[in-house]
Design goal:
By secondary structure, the protein is of the alpha+beta class. Among the domains are: 115-195, no CATH class; 286-476, no CATH class; 487-697 and 973-1161, no CATH class; 838-960, no CATH class. Helix content is 54%, strand content 12%. It has 40 helices and 31 strands. The strands form 8 sheets. It has an 8-stranded antiparallel sheet. A hairpin with a 6-residue loop joins β13 and β14 (402-408). α26 (681-702) crosses α34. The longest helix has 34 residues, at 618-651. It is elongated.
């Protein structure tokens, strides 16, 4: 081969690129390797609309709701014609540790800056103010001196009064009291004004980090001499700088807070809990329509004064019930030209005033002033039931330009007509989740349908349609997922560790075998395998592909298939060398003659991978993608890279290429038998038929029990026991140890005791498996529970409830043994009305403020002006610390970020043990304060809307959130039927594609028929051995052989398709040799078939052996997640190797055809002998 070294340089460059991609991007792990959640929702497609369009709109809206900044790794994609899948990773132990560290530093920093009035007064009274707060604020030392001086002045005055001093004598003492009190009050106000509100710090950390244009005294952007805009500090830097200026003594601590928070945000890729994602998905976008305040004609409000209040008090300022501030969502929607953008930035108020809109600025954002009265709004206030049903692109009939149309339901149409009828000519804002997206001018009265016109570009049209679609989302998407799959980070990490270990060991074994058998040629093959593996990982990184657990198996199998390509070539080289040909000629002939078999085998695999990728689930797609890349890299490294290496060595003077069979001829004779396979056909076919019948019988006897929950509908969950206590049985990880049978009995008893609950009753038939390795006594701490859905499902039954009810039943029934936090049931837990459960904190004591005088005599203190959320009648008593932890965790979620920084305290109201009020309680009060919404400083409507109502919703969500197990997968009957149909389609399409290729490639129906029979045998045997895995798993030797209760799931389907491809490849190699040995004859002789099988026997044993080793390693070390796939592949590998030699190849021979053709040709049988090319 010419230019061998140049080609090797190209290979080295490609390897460098792949290594660089791996170093820069790393490996993207799937849900099953790092832990994560997958949710499938059904979407109602309106009549007459394209499903692709609707699904795309729904996904865009959901992304804006769930991940508006795009910083989280939450993927959404269509699934079929009317479903979407949402996938999100769960935080690893590292991310959780960073989160805790950031929260701890923020709390510690705030503690150093915060001095509440009640705490300060108490510390002054006890003389401890300077020692407690002096380090945070040196002015407190001076304040304590002023307080002592004031107290001394009062004491002196009282002493004079007691001694009977005259008025003239008392006057100087009175003056001293007044002067010391004035000084004290002044210093006290100064100290308290320097307290940092938690919400201010939270807001500062969330501000934008991009540099901002510098403005002059008139508010105009400063331009440098070169014409560039001068950039200054970001909004975040400005606000943090202001905080540092106020708390100069804490500047270093603030830097530590910022650093810890940034580290956490850099690593954070998802929400903290699967239920948080489900909750966000469930909370449909709230769409409102509001008339905008015209600065030239305001009605009942003063825009200028409200603009000043916005700067000092924030967006919550306004006139309750009259007008409120709402943030502008995207500035790009408010200008068309660069000049307009400059005008907007230079003077936002004037820019929007020219459009009859009132705008103000706060913390770098623009806010629009909108009316809040019922006469000027169309909202869902008070539970008003109306909705938008559709939004679509249309045409302005007057101008012929593009426009946006929308439709309302009957109630919405009536309300819209009332609103717009009296405001024609005014701007009406479209508000989604309290953010303004657009404010078009009303040209006429709108009822149940309307058209928004304007000079819209494509982006603006798509933007408006997306916003309005969000308003109709609730009517389109199912409120709960129809399929749930959750895998905890610990299980993902375990899968990753075991999957990588199995992959590395299997590759290492393959490399050792190649080196030991082929010597130098084996080293060449090993280098090619290393290049192959590097390229697979590098290309996956380049295309941002996701590695799943089956994907790691795909890497191992790609290596095994690459070995097959090398073995085919090397065995051809050996044959040529044994015929006495020179080394260079032997290599040339070997590559030429092995090419067709290598290409044919890999193409059949590629067909299966393409089908799997098109119709498979996320994890299976990972396998298909990895294998597809592996096929391509195998062809490249097996044919191009190794050929270049041999050419380079030949050019360097290599004359010999020793191999183990050439050094030890006995090995060559063993691997090149002279078996008359055709004479064995009756025995081989008979054995195959019996085995196939027995396998089919075992499969059909199992019936529906052969299928995993994703194919028959049902739930699968993984449970972890709690940490063991003294005297309890212990598993290998220190957790409570339970045997599999004991856990199965406990779970089945839950089903037997369920009574009329048809969902929970299914637990009596649950299957329980251990996860991980049990102790010698069979004690385990992790269990997988599989349970089917009720059959049949009653008409009108809410199928989305099934998973929730099953998880709740298991979590509650085994609460004392599992590591799980249960949802709480309490009075009013399902109510959305907050008025009965929230109390203003207006009095001195907590008990009297909330109407529980007997409960707590503690002072309200710093919570005065806040709210108390009363939680009564908790069915399972909890500690106040548990309640506080749940609330704090919920407050840290994105959808509750507006409440971050609010102070919270949980007080026991009805303790189980009266001597321990902070212990278990049947009722608690959650006290919350927000300095920006103090009941003594703001209107009652604002306090009720922005504090009381919000905190009740937060507390209710935090306490009733469903328990999260290590892993949960649920499949409704509809989803199960769809997956089953998809699996069948995948198998059928793969078979059709492969067999069509073989028919075309070999030009013979007999070849294709023989291949079909061989493949059918392989699949039937695989299914049969899957069927007998359940009784084998219950035997004493079954678990020691890693045999578990295997059922057909998506991983098994991937295994079946893989083995179909592998056995086809095995068969193609032999058939390709038969075609070659046949030469120009039109028929195939008995001797041709026998010789071809015997010639390829060494390749069959070597490839099959290395692949067998790979499958064994995957079963033994790959863990429970990959074991069903590996078990299926192992059985199929054995069956496939057998069928290629004993079924498919002998079937292409026809004695009748040979006799007829010989009679025509009148020639005697001749044994063909290969001649060198």
């Amino acid at each position: 081969m010419k230019n061998a070294w140049m080609k090797l340089a190209i290979v080295a460059a490609l390897c460098a690129v792949c290594a660089w991609e791996l170093g820069v991007k790393g490996i993207r792990l799937g849900k099953d390797l790092q832990g994560g959640v997958s949710l499938v929702y059904s979407v109602k497609i309106p009549a007459g609309q394209q499903s692709e369009t609707v699904l795309g709109q729904v996904i865009e809206v959901l992304k804006q709701r769930v991940n508006p900044q795009g910083v989280l790794d939450i993927g959404m994609q269509p699934q079929g014609a009317d479903r979407i899948e949402v996938v999100m990773p769960l935080p690893s132990a590292e991310v959780r540790a960073l989160q805790l560290d950031a929260k701890k530093r923020i709390d510690e920093f705030l503690a150093k800056t915060q001095v509440s009035a009640s705490e300060l007064d108490g510390a002054l009274a006890t003389g401890s103010a300077a020692s407690r707060f002096g380090k945070q604020n040196p002015a407190i030392i001076e304040l304590e001196g002023a307080w002592q001086a004031m107290q001394q002045a009062r004491s002196d005055f009282n002493g004079l009064q007691t001694s009977g001093a005259t008025a003239d004598q008392l006057s100087p003492a009175e003056d001293k009291i007044v002067s010391t009190e004035l000084r004290y009050e002044s210093l006290r106000v100064q100290v308290l004004s320097k307290t940092l509100a938690p919400s201010r710090l939270t807001r500062a950390l969330d501000l934008a980090t991009e540099p901002q244009p510098v403005r002059d005294a008139e508010g105009k952007v400063v331009v440098t001499a070169s014409g560039a805009v001068e950039m200054g500090p970001s909004l975040r830097e400005k606000e943090l700088g202001a905080i540092k200026a106020e708390f100069a003594n804490l500047s270093a601590e603030l830097d530590e807070v910022v650093g810890a928070n940034d580290k956490y945000l850099a690593k954070r890729t998802g929400l903290d809990d699967p239920q948080d994602l489900i909750r966000l998905m469930r909370g449909a976008g709230v769409l409102d329509f509001r008339i905008a305040v015209n600065p030239a004609k305001p009605q009942g409000v003063n825009p200028d004064q409200l603009r000043k209040d916005l700067v000092t008090k924030g967006p919550r300022s306004g006139e309750p019930g009259i007008a409120r501030w709402f943030r502008l969502n995207d500035l790009k929607q408010w200008y068309d030209k660069p000049a307009e953008l400059e005008a907007l930035k230079a003077n936002p108020s004037a820019y929007f005033a020219a459009r009859n809109l009132s705008v103000g600025e706060f913390a770098g954002d623009l806010y629009l002033l909108l009316y809040d009265s019922e006469a000027n709004t169309l909202t869902h206030r008070g539970g008003a039931a109306w909705g938008l049903t559709n939004a679509y692109r249309t045409v302005d009939q007057r101008l012929g330009a593009s426009a946006v149309g929308f439709q309302l339901d009957q109630s919405g149409g009536q309300r819209m007509a009332q609103l717009t009828g009296s405001h024609v000519g005014e701007p009406m804002a479209i508000v989604l989740d309290d953010e303004v997206y657009s404010a078009p001018r009303l040209n006429s009265t709108i009822s149940d349908s309307g058209v928004i016109t304007g000079q819209f570009g494509e982006e603006e049209l798509a933007y408006l349609i997306r916003v309005l679609t969000a308003g109709s989302l609730e009517a389109k998407i199912s409120s709960d997922p129809i399929s749930v799959s959750i895998l905890g980070p610990s299980i993902g990490a375990d899968n990753l560790e075991k999957g990588l270990e199995a992959t590395i060991i299997s590759v290492a074994i393959t490399c050792v075998v190649m080196l030991a058998y082929y010597f130098l040629a084996g080293l060449v093959a090993d280098i090619a395998l290393a290049v192959n593996t590097l390229m697979i990982f590098g290309i996956m990184a380049l295309i941002d592909g996701t590695f799943t657990l089956p994907g790691l198996a795909g890497v191992a199998l790609s290596v095994a298939m690459a070995v097959d390509a090398n073995v085919l070539i090397y065995e051809r080289i050996r044959e040529e060398l044994e015929l006495g040909n020179p080394l260079k000629q032997a290599i040339d002939v070997a590559y030429k003659r092995a090419l067709s078999a290598i290409v044919d085998g890999n193409v059949t695999n590629l067909i299966a991978c393409v089908v799997l990728y098109k119709v498979g689930a996320t994890e299976v797609k990972g396998f298909a993608l990895t294998m597809s890349i592996g096929v391509i890299t195998t062809l490249f490294t097996g044919i191009w890279v190794t050929r270049a290496m041999f050419s380079a060595m030949l050019g360097a003077g290599m004359k010999r290429l020793p191999m183990l069979p050439t050094i030890v001829p006995a090995i060559s004779r063993v691997l090149m038998p002279s078996v008359d396979w055709i004479s064995l056909r009756p025995a081989l076919f008979g054995f195959s038929g019996v085995l196939a019948v027995l396998s089919a019988g075992a499969f059909f006897m199992r019936g529906n029990d052969m299928y995993e929950t994703e194919f028959r509908g049902g739930n699968s969950m993984t449970l972890s026991t709690r940490m063991a206590r003294a005297g309890e049985t212990v598993a290998v990880d220190g957790r409570l140890g339970i045997t599999r049978l004991a856990m199965e009995d406990r779970i089945r008893k839950l089903g037997a005791d369920a009574g009329d609950d048809i969902v929970v009753a299914q637990l009596k038939n649950a299957n329980v498996l251990t996860v991980g390795e049990p102790t010698a006594d069979g004690l385990a701490s992790k269990f997988q529970v599989r349970v089917g859905n009720p059959s049949p499902v009653p008409a009108g039954f809410d199928e989305t409830r099934i998973s929730r009810d099953i998880v709740d039943a298991v979590a509650k029934g085994l609460a004392g043994q599992l590591d799980v936090r249960l949802p709480l049931a309490f009075k009013n837990s399902t109510s959305v009305n907050h008025t009965a459960v929230t109390k203003p904190l207006e009095k001195a004591l907590i008990g009297t403020s909330i109407g529980f005088p007997q409960a707590s005599g503690d002072a309200v203190g710093e919570f005065r002006g806040g709210v108390a959320v009363i939680i009564e009648g908790i069915e399972t008593p909890v500690t106040t610390a548990d309640v506080a932890e749940r609330i704090n965790r919920m407050r840290s979620q994105p959808d509750w970020s507006s409440t971050a920084g609010r102070k919270t305290k949980v007080v026991g109201l009805d303790p189980v043990d009266a001597s321990n009020p902070s212990g278990l309680n049947r009722s608690v009060a959650v006290l919350v304060s927000d300095p920006d919404i103090n009941g003594f400083d703001v209107e009652l409507d604002i306090w009720d809307r922005d504090l009381a109502a919000v905190e009740w919703s937060l507390v209710r969500d935090a306490l009733t959130q469903q328990a999260s197990l290590d892993q949960v997968s649920s499949f409704s009957p509809v989803v199960a039927d769809n997956l089953a149909a998809t699996a069948v389609v995948a198998v059928v399409l793969s078979l059709i594609g492969m067999l069509a290729y073989i028919w075309i490639r070999f030009g013979s129906f007999r070849f294709s028929t023989a291949t079909v029979i061989g493949v059918a045998f392989n699949v039937i045997v695989c299914l049969g051995f899957l069927a007998i895995s359940i009784p084998l798993a219950s035997t004493g030797f079954g678990p020691s052989l890693y045999i578990e209760e295997y059922r057909i799931d998506l991983n098994v389907v991937a295994g079946l398709l893989t083995i179909i491809g592998y056995s086809l490849n095995d068969t193609v190699v032999i058939l390709d040799r038969i075609r070659e040995n046949r030469g120009k004859r039109t028929w195939i002789s008995r001797d041709t078939v026998n010789l071809s099988i015997n010639q390829t026997f060494s390749r069959t044993i070597l490839t099959g052996g290395s692949t067998f080793a790979t499958a064994i390693v995957l079963i033994a070390l790959g863990g429970t997640g990959i074991r069903p796939f590996a078990y299926t592949f192992l059985i199929g590998l054995i069956a496939g190797t057998f069928s290629s030699v004993a079924i498919a190849a002998p079937l292409v021979y026809s004695r009748k055809e040979e006799e007829q053709e010989r009679a025509k040709a009148a020639i005697a049988p001749v044994t063909p002998v290969l001649q060198p090319a």
